[in-house]
Each structure stands twice: as C-alpha cells, then as structure tokens.
Amino acid sequence: MTVTTAEAVDACAETPVATERHYVMCPPTYFTVEYSINPWMDPDAPVDTDLAVAQWSELKRTYERLGHTVEVVEPQPGLPDMVFAANSGTVVDGRVLGSKFRAPERAAEAEHFRRWFLARGYREVVMPSRINEAEGDFAWTGRVLLAGTGFRTDPAAHAEAQEVLGVPVVSLQLVDPRYYHLDTALFVLRKGESAQIAYYPEAFSAGSRRVLRRMFPDAVVADEADAACLGLNGVSDGRNVVLPREATGLAKRIEECGYEPVLLDISELRKSGGGPKCCTMELH
C-alpha cells in the first residue's frame, strides 16, 4: 500500500509531543542463538555477542539521551534471550502481569523478572495461568490493550490480561509466522485518547485488519520492506521513534507526521528475531 505525503500529513494533523518514559532492559551478556523458536533464528549462523552488547548499549544510551529512565535487570547464564525484556511483563498503572512462555527454553526468564518486580516494591504482581508473552503480544495505547495471538500468546490470555490489569483488551490475529509477536508487526506511536499506531497489515487476519482500520484511521501503514527488517519493532516516546536503521521507508513516513526517527543498528539482535522494542519493557 502506498501512502502519499499529502495523505500522511492529513492523517497526522496532531503535533507529536515527547513524554518521559520508564523502561526496563536486560544486557545481552549471554546472548547467542542456541535454538530456533522463530523463523529468524539459525543456530548455525555465527553470532557476535560483543557486537550485540555494543548495539544494546547504544540503544540504552539513546533512551537516556532522550531523557528517559532505564532500569536494568541482571542477565542470567543459560538464558540467551533474556535480553528481550519486553516478553517478561506487562505493567499498567502499577499492576504487573508476568509472563508464561510457550518455548521451554525461555520459561525460566519469567521468575527472574517476577523477583525483580517484587524487589522494587511492586505488590500487585500476578503470574499468568495462560501462555502470555507480555509486551511481545500486548501493546498499551493509553486507552485499550491491543493483544496479539496466533503463534505465541494464547487467546484466553487476553481475557486474563483484562481481568488482572483492569483495562479493555482488543484481540488481534497474527497470520504470518515471520511476525510471530504483535510487536514485530505493530507499535504505538502516540498514546492517549487520540492514540496512533504504525503497523504492517499483511501480518494480520482480514478481520483484524478491519478492526485496526476502524480504530486507527490515521495509522502509519508500513510496507513489506519495513516489516522485513523488523521496522515495526519500534519504540516511541510520543515524538522520538527508535527504529532499526534499515527501516528508511517507515522513518520517512513517520517523519512526515512530525515524529523524529532515530535509526539504530540492531543487526546482531535481529538474528534472534529481536529489535528495539523486544529489548524494552515499558512501565506504563
């Protein structure tokens, strides 16, 4: 789908405003690709852990430079994907819904994050009974929780999230295994009553595409090239939008809406199917 500059400007009339955010990250100290649980992972491909650490560190510095708070969870040996902190918790108004991973290789991550929340004084911490990969499949818009399913998170986890977090949930069906989590196909550009998203329509079922068009008529629509570099695995503070450096088409479209794209190299982390958002849990 091609979006003209004029259409983008009309759809993005509201001036983007940055707000201070609170993020949780985990260094990729033990990052490697030892197994394959998504189409991006190839255990036979070489992985440069030092480069992954450098890319992660630049992402963290970028958040701090933009004025955001970043807290760090201690990585654990034997958990190479713990760097993808977004998969280990969903936090709205101080309530925490933990995670329950589909892949046994990642299961132990959930307990480390649960302990981290409790050590920092969070008392409303609930661990899910259904498979739920947290912000991998949950995106808070400030008024509703968009919830993905199809490859990882169970549909029944959506109702559980609504009950625990006390916010309305809208279910979305993912259909392309390359975009196995919601955060590989959609992210929130602006939160609030006039929330705006960016997304890749072909990652969703026909019905879910209709829902998204109805809910977000001013959405920034990404193309195949944007999606193929995990460009939709972005992080926005309402104005500054951190994207993989290859997502140049998406960067141009959001810039036409008044956002400030910040392009970073996440090539090593992408070998495990991750990007900026995967590495970033937001405490809403």
Structure description:
- With 284 residues, this protein is of the alpha/beta class.
- The protein has a single domain, classed as 5-stranded Propeller (L-arginine/glycine Amidinotransferase, Chain A).
- It has helices at residues 5-11, 49-65, 109-119, 156-165, 206-215, 224-228, 248-256, and strands at 22-25, 69-72, 90-92, 95-97, 125-126, 138-140, 145-149, 169-173, 186-190, 196-199, 220-221, 235-236, 240-244, 260-264, 281-282.
- A 3-stranded mixed β-sheet has the order 2-1-15, covered by helices on one side. A 3-stranded mixed β-sheet has the order 3-4-5, sandwiched between helices.
- Strand 13 (240-244), helix 7 (248-256) and strand 14 form a beta-alpha-beta unit.
- The longest helix has 17 residues, at 49-65.
- The protein starts with a helix and ends with a strand.
- The relative contact order is 0.18.
- Residues 1-9 have low confidence and may be disordered.
Describe the structure in brief:
With 284 residues, the protein is an alpha/beta fold. It is 24% helix and 19% strand. It has seven helices and 15 strands.
The strand line-up of the biggest sheet is: 2-1-15
Topology-level CATH name: L-arginine/glycine Amidinotransferase, Chain A
Total beta strands: 15
Domain count: the total is 1
Could you state the order of secondary-structure elements as H and E?
HEHEEEHEEEHEEEHEHEEHEE
CATH architecture: 5-stranded Propeller
CATH superfamily: L-arginine/glycine Amidinotransferase, Chain A
